[in-house]
Amino acid sequence: MPVNPTYPGVYIEEIASGVRPIRGVATSIAAFIGTFSRGLHNEAVRVQSLSDFEREYGGLNRDSEASYAVQQFFLNGGSEAWIIRIGHPGDAGPPVLAALSPATAGLNAVVGGGAPDLLAVTAGRVIRDEPADNPGTWGNNLRLEVSHSTSANDTTFSLSIKEVQVSGDRTTVVREEVYRNLTMQPNEANTAIDVVNAASTLIYLSPDAAPVTDTDLPHTTGTLGGDLDPAADFAGGLATSTPTVAEISGIDVTVQFGPAATADDIGPIALDFSDLASPADDPVSFAAWAGLFQERLRRAATDATVPVNMRAYLAGAVVTLLGDGSAAEPWRFHVRAGQGAQPFDPDVRLVFAGANADHYGLDGGSVLHLGPQQIALSGGNDGAVVDAASGAYLVPAAAFAGNAGARSGIYALEDVDLFNILCMPDVPRLTDAGAPLAVYSEALNYVTERRAMMIVDIPLGLNRIDRMETWLVENAGLRAPNTAVYFPRTFIADRLNRNRLRSLASSGTVAGLWARTDAARGVWKAPAGTEARLRAVQDLAYVMTDAENGVLNPLGANCMRQFPIYGSVCWGARTMDGADQIASDWKYVPVRRTTLFIEESLYRGTQWVVFEPNDEPLWAQIRLNVGAFMHDLFRKGAFQGAMPSDAYLVKCDAETTTQSDIDNGIVNVEVGFAPLKPAEFVILKIQQIARRAES
After folding, report:
1. Residues 633 and 536 in one domain
2. Structure pTM?
3. Which of 40, 169, 278, 533 supports an S-S bond with 342, CB 3.0-4.6 Å?
4. 225: buried, middle or exposed (CB in 10 Å: 19+, 13-18, 0-12)?
5. Does 421 share its domain with 374?
6. What family classification does the UniProt entry report for this protein (predicted)?
7. pLDDT for the residue 113
8. How far apart are CA 36 and CA 87, in angstroms?
């Protein structure tokens, strides 16, 4: 800004150059909408690799065409995608169809011996300060563990969230999150709901039922003993001495399966202290007492009544001494079973009894909480996807189309800043008459607004030229510059079916091919030809001849071919608006995609112009910046022409913006370019050269 000279001397004033570089946007960010085995419902989530996809959405699912399409996208060169998971909303029937629903659980409060609901736990996570469910049966594998072994036993707790995988009798933890020193007190740095919801990718917490005080904590998992009386039971009282072995040796343990005793329970098993001679072996401290208790509890695993595969409940038991012996925080024992049993039952309880169980605070009258080792979430459902008897696809068209107000289905992409390619491989499976066309039509309007392309998939069984011609007639409403369709479907090796071939819609494969071509040659290069090999494609649903290719190409349908040496390749680069009879400016995919790329880049790169003084200095800046962007594309080979003047133009002056435009707050910028068009037909002319006879 101008300086204000007040003293004799030298002043420095910085002057803006007027150069505002325009950065080209990405051209091959894909968006996939479909059913998956896990993932947030009606939320767009970015994935940048197959690993991201498997972690967020569970990887391949035999009922999900979209899951295979995402895999093909990354295998063929894609590097960034947005995934939107949809599902069946449920139907009371008949027939009764299950709704997509998340797994849930409740954490109960420690209040005067009762158990009112304190926190509701739901599989999912918080995005943009709003909870987002992650439905499906996967959530039934989530386990919660609560401990009061914290810096303040009576006012804070720790929460562990584990995702387990059950294979036969073996339970393996595949992911774990731990949050320590949480409190129920609001407006604190360690408030449980705030801490967990800000960091967890597995669950979110929400308050449940009536307000509670800050001292109300979730019940621990495992067995929590009562307060050890500092003045009773032991010789001299706990305030002045530790107990003797004789005073603590009369205790036994039962491994109880569930909240009530059953015939399958193991025990009671008496803890063996017979090798200890008092007073030399008496615990010298309460910590030593806890260590002795844990050691004897683990030794009980070798009892003959304990099956070998169940010994881990006792062999891995952990005893924690809580408190500091004061009146405010008296001593307590927290006992947790080991988790290596095969199979492991999270609902197992360790029940203590015996003549001296009250000394431990673990008899039936003094134990504070006899809980399971883990709280399992339940109720997660994948919803109705495929009819087991008929194989019919059950997800309704409305789930794909979504609702603009609720930002569901297609409109979940409203939360995405930029995407370029929309793929919905499951749409052709919709069984209601006209449903695929209706969904694709609504999606076409949306991608046109967002300056994106849509790859339309053809249904299973469309494996002949005449059927494809019929399909093009029936779906003429999809003919538009922003759509492309490919014939035939592809076959890939299905690793979920012992690598037998599976028919797959081609949108994911083609989207990956577009991304690979963009990275190697630029968006102006047609994603077709011998370089456009289809990776991970084992076969095509129909092997066509040149003559058959010549039937579909003029109709705006791109063909995929098989050639010796090259294998399966993409052999077409037309939009659905590219039928010869239409004679559209947007006949070719690279021309349309280059145009969308320039439009989006200039739209974002000229936002600074808004509210600037509308006169020649502004027009000159616009010409400078837009011209620099277009010249850079010219240098990269994006346009026809040997000279910049032949390749592009940028006009913004008094001719494009009249005084009437200025009065109405309008500045007009004209940008033109000469697009590269693919050499779709190569004609070789060969003739003989006649030579005169020598005389």
Report:
1. no
2. 0.90
3. 169
4. buried
5. no
6. Belongs to the myoviridae tail sheath protein family.
7. 42
8. 8
- Determine the average pLDDT of the residues in 581-593: 96
Tokens of 384: 């109705």
pLDDT in tens, 446-472: 999 999 999 999 999 999 999 999 999
Angle between helices 507-520 and 65-75 (to 10 degrees): 20
Which position has the token pair 């996570």? 125
* Alpha-carbon gap, residue 497 to 501, rounded angstroms: 8
Q: Is residue 391 part of a domain?
A: no
The mean pLDDT value for 137-150 works out to 91
| pLDDT tens-digit readout, 285-297 | 888 889 999 999 9
Residue type for position 104: T
3-state secondary structure 45-68: EEECCHHHHHHHHCCCCCCCHHHH
pLDDT at 112 over 50: no
Same domain, yes or no: 505 and 542: yes
DSSP secondary-structure letter at 347?
T
Domain containing residue 689: 1-22+610-695
Residues near 499 by beta carbon (within 8 Å), at least 6 away in sequence? 493
Query: Is the pLDDT at 302 greater than 70, yes or no?
Result: yes
CATH code at 129?
A: 2.60.40.4290
* Residue of 372, 461, 384 lying closest to 145 (CA atoms): 372
**Average pLDDT score, the chain:** 91
Q: Are 494 and 500 in contact (CB under 8 A)?
A: yes
Provide the number of structural domains found in the chain: 4
Residues 551 and 435 grouped into a single domain = yes
| Residue 488 forms part of a structural domain | yes
| pLDDT band at residue 45 using 50, 70 and 90 as cut-offs | very high
> Does a cis peptide bond (omega within 30 degrees of 0) precede residue 343?
yes
- What confidence category does residue 244 fall into, taking pLDDT thresholds of 50, 70 and 90? confident
Instruction: Confirm if 143 and 376 have CB atoms less than 8 A apart.
Output: yes
Assess whether 445 and 539 both reside in one domain. Answer: yes
Q: Give the N- to C-terminal CA distance of the chain in Å, as an integer.
A: 91
CA 307 – CA 398 distance, rounded (Å):
53
Scored b (16 or more CB within 10 A) or e, 408-435 reads bbbbbbeeeebbbbbbbbbbbbbeeeeb
Domain boundary among the residues 313, 332, 366 is at 366
Residue that is last in its domain, among 591, 620, 648: 591
Q: To which residue do tokens 């070998």 refer? A: 308
Region 582-587 average pLDDT: 95
Q: Is 285 helix (H, G, I), strand (E, B) or coil?
A: coil
* pLDDT for res 188: 86
- Answer whether residue 213 shows pLDDT above 90: no
Asked if the structure places residue 600 within a domain, the reply is no
Residues 259 and 362 in one domain: yes
Residue 48, C-beta contacts closer than 8 angstroms, at least 6 positions apart: 79, 80, 81
CA distance 312 to 618: 77
- Domain-located, residue 233: no
**Which pLDDT score, from 0 to 100, does residue 111 have?**
47
Same domain, 622 and 582: no
Contact at 8 Å (CB) between 24 and 601? yes
Amino acid in position 669: V
Tokens of 171: 């339970």
